[in-house]
Amino acid sequence: xxxxxxxxxxxxxxxxIADLAASTNYALEKNGFPTHELQExxxxxxxxxxxxxxxxxxxxxxxxxxxxxxxxxxLLHYNIHNADLSRPYPGIPELxxxxxxxxxxxxxxxxxxxxxxxxxxAHFFPNIHFIAVFGQREGVPTKPDPAVVEEIRTKAxxxxxxxxxxxxxxxxxxxxxNSGVDxxxxxxxxxxxxxxxxxxxxxxAREAKEIGEKVDELTS
Length: 220
Known about the structure:
Blueprint: E1 4-7, E2 14-15, H1 17-30, H2 49-56, H3 64-81, E3 87-88, H4 92-101, E4 105-113, H5 114-124, E5 132-136, H6 147-156, E6 163-167, H7 170-179, E7 182-186, H8 193-197, E8 203-205, H9 209-219
Helix pairs in contact: 1-3, 2-3
């Protein structure tokens, strides 16, 4: 029985890649660095924004000082423009509403910085009660470290076998493995299905409704 579903945010609940790319390119250009095509960002994101900037910076320029400079300009831009082009993936709002109505606990575990994660979740899912919305926070290791899943599971007071973790990348699949919980990969995110399949998740969802069907199957 699955009583708690933990969702990744970027690439799983929301398609945020265009806004992430636009703000990173803005910050790179402001600091005199070359920009990147949108599709390149699919492989830059996933490990927190500092790692995003490190990957986006040119070889030989990946210094802590340059990361700080890019981060400063990125945050100024992204905090205003983070919902310009970002949208929930098809079927996600309906899935969350259905799960909530059935009494399934919902949570978000993201490597996006905390304020950004909270802002996007509140904006796009105002009627959904998440028991936790956790992003990248000071003193808490980022995914694939299991700390965030353990924190949510403890808050929900559920066993590992009662948790399903849903994400779109190798980081998410490894997070589930490290946490000892079942994983569901989603085919609509930033990374190819083959990357997810390599980790042997419980399922790969091609459409959002398949997650709800799986939960029904596991709780019937």
